[in-house]
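Notes from the pairing session

We agreed to fold both candidates in a single pass and log them together. This is the raw record for the first candidate, unedited. Please don't reformat it; downstream parsing expects exactly this layout.

Candidate A
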Amino acid sequence: MDGIIPDLRFASKQKLIRRMRKCRAAEVRTRYLIIVNLLRRNPTQTAAAVHVARSTVYRVAERFCEFGEWGLLDGREDNGEPKLSEHVLAELDRIVRQTPPDFGRPRPTWTRELLVAVLQERTGVRIHVATMSRALALIRARRGRPRPTVGCPWAAPRKNRRLRVLARLLATLPRGHVAVYADEVDIHLNPKIGLDWMGYGQQKEVLTPGQNEKRYLAGALNAVTGQLTWVGAERKNSLLFISLLQRLMAVYPDAPVIHIILDNYRIHSSQITRRALASFGGRIVLHFLPPYCPNENKIERFWQDLHAAVTRNHHCRSMSELMQRVHRFLRRRQRRALQCAQRHAA
């Protein structure tokens, strides 16, 4: 077209198109695209198709005519090793997984500028802030809300010994015995506010009833089958927990012993609870987790699913409506657990 570049053989055209498709450098790919378009368009049409200036089209065509395909490259291949090497990215990943105070910085959260400075201290490599954004994308880092936790007051050896004892209990559970994870959960009429997708410029609203009401569930998750047993009440006290124990004995009437793994909440070891356990004739044995170890209690994840599926950002106007949805979710979850147990038994 207009004689701006010489006509190419079919094989040469196909080779240019293949290399353009394999090219990962944006600027070089644009130059390839300009040449490919000039094979069937004039400079004005090419500039409009590739979204560049006509002067850029003429400059790229001139270099292509003078140097051939090598004229499309920008010379960055001679710049040496890229700064974002595997070693640098691995070190950045280790830095992001910690906090600035771990590196002697007073700021509690990371900024890209602070990451650039700490990465340079650790590796001797300084990158631009914009390059830091690309590096964070390469290691798949994300901005999120940290999870608040309370450290276990026990020494690590003592905590690990207790966890090993519980793991050994589950691995060597006597025939006919049942092991469950137990815990309580609060249900609030005022919805828990959580993240949600929104349109650009939009902030969704969640109407709250104003006057909050609460209900409480006590649940037990079978450590083997995933079957859930639960009871509810208007108060979270020892009677709620004892009601769960009675329900467990009714659900597992043939189990000689029901082992319950649970946290150290006060209703689990109150005087009324101890008297109730004594009246059960040893059919129920409590196994307490180390303090502040919610991740070791498998039912905690189930309660998180309950909040995500039902109570977070909910629009229920009454507690009865909300509890209907809660029980519907629990029954649906129970059916899935029973189906999985049946498939496992088959």
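Candidate B (folded immediately after A)
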Amino acid sequence: MLRSFTLHRPETAEEACARLADLGEDAAVYAGGTELLLLMKLGLLRPRHLVDVKRIGGFAEIGLTPEHGGRLRLGAAVTHRAVEHSALVRARCPLVSSVARHVANVRVRNVGTVGGNLAFADPHSDLATLFLTLDATVELLSPRGRRELSLGEFIRGPWETSRAPDELLGSIALTPWAADTAAAYVKFGVHERPTLAVAAALRLDGAAGAGRHGADRIVEARVAVGCVGPRPVRVAEAEAQLRNASLADLEDAARAASESAAARVDPADDLYGSADYKREMVAVFVRRALRIAAARARGAEPAARFPHAVVA
């Protein structure tokens, strides 16, 4: 049962920040409310005031940042469903659209927001894992002005971020991959929340299979692992193992990368499995994600599907 609270509906970010500063610890930011309201019903959170940010201009919009080339900008109150169906997202970051389609269930996607998902810092977030490979940054607004942080700096640990009490998460910016990049997102779990997730992207130095020397060489790789430790991580060691490898010899590089990823994560024993089990699963699924990305680089779509796994 929900404890009574006062709902505030500011029209501007400045007004919302001022309200948060005045109310202090008695207030919580409200957007989709999929996580917040559940915790309030369970009595785990008891804010006396909710500051609704859905009406603030720009917070529910998807667009491009003004700099040359333009990064993809997602307002904090953009829903997962809006990301899933956005033509701009499909054109600039198609894997983001595909992953959004597999977030929770359609009821959650209709109301749950991108900003709320990241600000809540749930360790089992699909978007946070994928966004690390897109050099995501978050915009934080406060009475002191605006600041920008990388997503890795913003998410500090389970349910903990760098957001100050009087700050709002205004938007998220993503850097689209180069056109010659092939990518995959694979998540595994037997519960509603995934046990682990892997995002992998491979950029080649030319068209794979075109018959030119070196055309299938990997010049850039991105690997992120999430849902298995206290926060998602980008695995630089795994990326280094893949750089300069060819698709023809991918297995050796993928094995080395998967071992680096398994060593990098920090899992704990819980209802999702033991720490040793999770490390082994990370190694297995990093290899699978890389194989899928490599197949897509060759112009093929792997037919293999795995029990309790989702491939995007």
